[in-house]
Amino acid sequence: MPCLSILEIMPESTPETGLAHIKIILVEPSGALNVGSVARVMKNMGLNQMVLVNPQCDWLSPEARQMAVHAIDVLEAAQEVATLPAALRGCQKAIATTGRDRTAPSVNLEPARTTLPWLLEASSHHPSWQSALIFGREDRGLTKEELNYAQRSIRIPSSDIYPSLNLAQAVAICCYELYVYVLERKELSDRQPETSFPSSLTPVVDLASLDTLEGYYQQLEALLLKIGYLYPHTSASRMEKLRRLYNRADLSDPEVAMLRGVLSQVEWALYVQQSDSR
Q: Which residues contact 40 (CB under 8 A, 6 or more apart)?
């Protein structure tokens, strides 16, 4: 059987899709070669937004440029930020990738192939919306706290003999799954224009951004600590459960504003009560 080159097995063209609205976020990447390889595979699959959180390498080095090949534009346009919340600013949807199937049993790991299309929900109905796909460090992935910033988590299955995937390989698999899903959906639409797409991609009106939700979570945690519902040594695990609850609700901006209004009123009532008791 003849050996196929990489060019022969790659997609021939990029469909017009919402892939350009998906950020590929790399948290503290340590290898310039990996960053360059990620830029290349992103361009292969029609993605162009790369965000680097506190990178531990020279991501514009000659080595990175050599691996990027014809994706130098993606590499040079990459955004560097200090924290994961900063990288997620403006996003409505986020999926984290992890291999923590045993070390973080509270995280509900979902299959990549059926979960990744959820990221396209935002741009399908609101072209200005953004989504994010988060990848962790080469040596230890994402921390449990970092996993909490995403609404959903996926794990790419691999052999028990050597389960750890290279960062660029993991990005390539996920980008390919997204590309194939969009390509198949486009082909189906071309053949059957009246075909409706899966109900998982349903319109969501005025969905709150992740940074808006993060502001609510911070206010909620501070209040719950103040009234004694949370204790400092258990607040992280309790807040993790509350985050999962709210993430399932797909809150809109007005709903988050209402919830924050409730918290503000409670804070005011506590202040008045404390003032009267003096």
A: 67, 68, 69, 70, 71, 74
Amino acid (one-letter) located at 174: C
- Give the helix/strand (H/E) hosting 238: helix 235-249
Question: What residues have CB less than 8 Å from 166, skipping those under 6 apart?
Answer: 34, 138
Q: What backbone phi and psi angles, to 5 degrees, belong to 135?
A: -120, 145
Neighbours of 142 (CB within 10 A): 25
Strands 109-111 and 79-81: unpaired
CA distance to 50, 138, 182, 209, 211, per residue, from 128 (Å): 17, 31, 18, 12, 16
> Given this structure, which CATH class describes domain 19-191?
alpha beta
CA dist 141 and 26 (Å) reads 10
Tell me the backbone φ, ψ of residue 91, rounded to 5 degrees.
Answer: -90, 145
Matching residue, tokens 């004694």: 228
The phi and psi torsions of 50 (rounded to 5 degrees) equal -110, 130
Model-wide pTM > 0.70: yes
Residue 4 pLDDT: 39
CA–CA separation, 126 and 134 (whole Å): 21
Domain-by-domain residue ranges, the chain? 19-191, 210-276
Positions in the chain short of pLDDT 70: 1-17, 100-107, 122-125, 127, 193-205
Degrees, nearest 5: CA angle 40-45-47: 80
Fold of domain 210-276:
Helicase, Ruva Protein; domain 3 (1.10.8)
Q: Kindly give, in sequence order, each residue whose CB lies less than 8 Å from that of residue 111, ignoring residues fewer than 6 positions away.
A: 154, 157
